[in-house]
Amino acid sequence: MTALIVAIVITIVAAWLIIKNYQPQTVLLLAGLLLLTITAIFYPEKSILYGKATSTGSVWLDIFAFAKGSLTTQIAGIGLIIMAAGGFASYMDHIKASNAMVNVCIRPLQVIKAPYLILALGYICAQMLHVAISSAAGLAMLLLVTFFPVLVRLGVSKAAAAAMIGLCAFMDLGPAVGTANLAAKHAGMEAAVYFAHYQMPVAVAVMVVVSVLIFFTAKYYDKKEGHVVVIQDAVDANAPKEEQAPTFYALLPVFPVILVLVFSPLVINTIKIDVVTAMIIGTLTAFVCELIVKRDLLACCKGVQVFFKGMGGMFTSIVSLLVCADIYAQGMQTIGAIDYLLESVQNAGFGFTSMTIVMTLLVGITAVLTGSGVAAFFSFAGLAPSIATKFGASAVSMILPMQLMAGMGRSISPVAGIIIAVSKAGECSPFAIVKRTLIPALGGIVTMFVVNFLVF
Question: Which keywords fit this entry according to its UniProt record (predicted)?
């Protein structure tokens, strides 16, 4: 109980400092290191090593080695995805391929003259893409490169477009997702069966509700913040012709998306291409196109440097924040706050329905606090089968809402990697993004509970 209280107090202080415009990286880093220090002093029996790291020989040096472990892990994982996508986006802007894509896409969409309707429908398309692109951060970065500029040119605010993309992985759907595979394993069925027979009936209802709420909340907050909808022209008439990219360049920004979708279980399941590999292939393909069009090897080689500068810029602004948020989240788990919540649930003595709600909310709370849906679900998933057996109920009816809640909690966490990433594009703080995702998320959560209990 003491560990939980300490964690809550530190969390409140950290949140207050961030709201007061203190540098979030520094605040989260200090909060995480403070949690680790308290653990080392008052709970010496707990390990403060990061993952499978080995001790330096000094518990005090282990605290700082923890930061090194987080840096190594995040840069090699989600951080690399974000940096590669940021570098690719910068290069697409440099060669004006982003403008070419927007010019092609915006013409038919301008005819509709309903930017917020397109925003809402865009969420459904993005959520379905998540079935093929299992990485929430990877999908978000792909959408930031491709769909985000289209939405902005159609007239929605950058914050509204960024918030919608922050919800693109609101539910972790499909057999390729790690949490879904674990859920299927605990439910005693194949991942494909779990997806088709259990996830999709709930997901369809949730997607409809969330898309409707995105439509109204985006309009409300844009109006409240004084945003004026202005549908921009497809082509800048004043731009010199030599500065406009060839029309076929419109395919370059979406080329990595095509690669990821084609080489996936949806089309070709014998070959798999991850987001970073697709970004590198996309960049080199664009480089070859530049050579063919401009026939200037020196200029084209210099242009590729924009890719690496873009990667560095993403590390400075986003990945650094992601690392510090991870140190804070890991500190929360190390001190034992999550373990206390878990033990409290086991000793509560609720009925099956109440127990399902409590377990699901615990997953959501953990995801909000840590920013990781995977960590939240993996912490509690193993309890579902034994709890269901005690009540003579099906394990899937408990584990399904728990698994879906992992992604839902992540979408309203200001320390989640995906929220931090989209806030940069939206030119606002992660808290401003969460403010916009909160109402659609709460509507989706309520719908998920209702449909799950009615159907299963």
Answer: Cell membrane, Membrane, Transmembrane, Transmembrane helix, Transport
